Amino acid sequence: MRNLDLPGRSVARSLNGMAATSHGLATLTALDVLRDGGNAMDAAVAACAVQGVVEPQSTGIGGDCFALYAPQRGTGGSSEIVAFNGSGRAPEAATPEWFAAQGIDKIERLTPHSVTVPGAVDAWAQLLRDHGTRSLGDMLQPAIRCARDGFVVTERVFADWEDEVEVLSHDPNTSALYLPGGKTPALGSVQRQPLLAASLELIAMEGRDAFYKGGIAADLVAHLRGLGGLHSLEDFAAAGGQYVDPISSRYKGIDIYQCPPNGQGVIALLLLNILAGFDLPSLGAMSAGRLHLEIEATRLAYRARDAHLADPAQAEVPLEQLLSADYAAELRRQIRTDRATVAPAPAPVAAHADTVYISVVDKDRNAVSFINSLFGSFGSGITGPKSGVVLHNRGMSFSVDPAHPNCIAPGKRPMHTIIPGMAVKDGRAVMPFGVMGGHYQAAGHARFITNLIDYGLDVQQSMDLARLFPHPAKDAIEVESGVPAEVLAELEAMGHRFQAAEGPIGGSQAIQIDWEAGTLAGGSDPRKDGCALGY
């Protein structure tokens, strides 16, 4: 339990349902759905749609989606985990030969080549059809109201918005919508998005095909092609996410589930497998010894990520090896406990990201771990002129090197950073959890789980604890201001170099299910604007 004399957040606790998101309106939307009799999947989709309006830098219908779902069969709980990959694909014309012929050696963010076909709307439709109790049209209504009637710009949204003036200025359609009067909206101001409201209303009436086969697709394809993109109406019409087999690894009696590649969930599991061989509880939660091991293990795991992760449908991904105890032991042996020896990993293709993560558990204990992203803040900065849809920049994660497994190719999915998590104990789902923050997410999953299990912190404290991250694209380790100066001095003596993080590192949500007590305990990261609420 936290020290109540100090500023902080208490764990949210409830008897029936609970939602935790990074924006208060999204949490309230999810709770309204639950209280009205909807289930966890209904609530997650409704909340995510709202966030695509009120947290426009992070997510939207122009992005991608992954989900883990634990349906409860009866009253005793279940270990069944359903995984869904809602990430989009490159255009059929996107061959490495074409990029070579154009002299393009890197996919840049503010170009149409960074845009893969968005997968979010299809994912929402499939997940609601198969696991929800409400229609997509009904679950879009709160988002439509926010876009049409207006929403208030909150602190974290405002800070992120201010940082992206250059991105927002690149496309006249985007700047017209998101730089009203030529500047970012003021903190506390009311914003409306009538074009986006109309697009959401069209999807609500006509279903997911309105996005992939109707006027919205026509608007987006025409704009992308006008900018030199390779997209076609056929690419949008062929879009479709798929159910996949989840992967898992056991950490000290808890089974941690992730979506398989093309996402980096396997790297979160690899990190936990490496750290499992160290006596973390003997080291303080914010000690130099613990943070040193975390840094070194992260660098080793991310090297493996950048070398191997790709779309397994079009490249060989050594999943079994990456999850094996022998491989974790091999990497663990490269770590010295007294000094830094692991060099920073080579810089990945893309250095940045923005995302929303949502946890929901309903009164029947169906549990959803749900993540939706534009990747960069405001994605590619490209917006459909008629639809008001901001498109993500996930294609930046592709390589254009034909020898790399993650090289761009027709219909291929890029390596993805967004990863939902689910914890299972004694054959029952006990916690949907996730961490936002682009490349940080795999490291964030490992830190959150070790905070919870090795140090006995509660679900909120496990998020609150100060963070650092050896970002693969930077030589110096990013560090939050909450890491004690004396700990940094010890780490510097071991050979580490640090730089102040440009902003808070990541964000997170989680809900624990206490099956014996029949209660829920939720947390929401103070680095964002959201909260956990239950009833």
Q: In words, what does this structure look like?
A:
The longest helix is centred in the middle third of the chain and has 21 residues. This protein has a seven-stranded antiparallel beta sheet. It has a seven-stranded antiparallel beta sheet with strand order 7-4-3-11-10-2-21, with helices on one face. It has a domain of 275 residues. By secondary structure, it is an alpha+beta fold. The two termini are 21 Å apart. Helix 14 packs across helix 17 and helix 15 crosses helix 20. Strand 14 and strand 15 form a beta hairpin.
- Provide the β-strand percentage band: 15-25%
Count of alpha and pi helical runs: 20
Distance between the termini: 21 Å
Which percent bin holds the helix content? 25-40%
Shape: globular
Rounded to an integer, what's the Rg over CA atoms?
Answer: 22 Å
What structural class is derived from the secondary structure elements?
A: alpha+beta
Mean pLDDT: 95
Poorly predicted spans: none
Strand count, sense and closure of the main sheet?
Answer: 7 strands, antiparallel
Q: What is this entry, summarized?
A:
The chain has 20 helices and 21 strands.
Topology (elements, then pairings):
Layout (H helix, E strand, L loop, with lengths): L11 E3 L3 E4 L2 H12 L4 H15 L9 E7 L11 E5 L9 H6 L18 H12 L4 H4 L1 H9 L1 E2 L2 H8 L2 H5 L2 H7 L11 E2 L2 H13 L2 H4 L2 H12 L6 H5 L4 E3 L2 E5 L2 E5 L6 H11 L12 H21 L10 H5 L1 H8 L21 E8 L5 E9 L6 E2 L6 E2 L28 E6 L2 E9 L3 H15 L6 H4 L3 E2 L7 E3 L5 H9 L4 E3 L6 E8 L4 E6 L6 E4 L1
Helix pairs in contact: 1-2, 2-6, 6-10, 14-15, 14-17, 14-18, 15-20
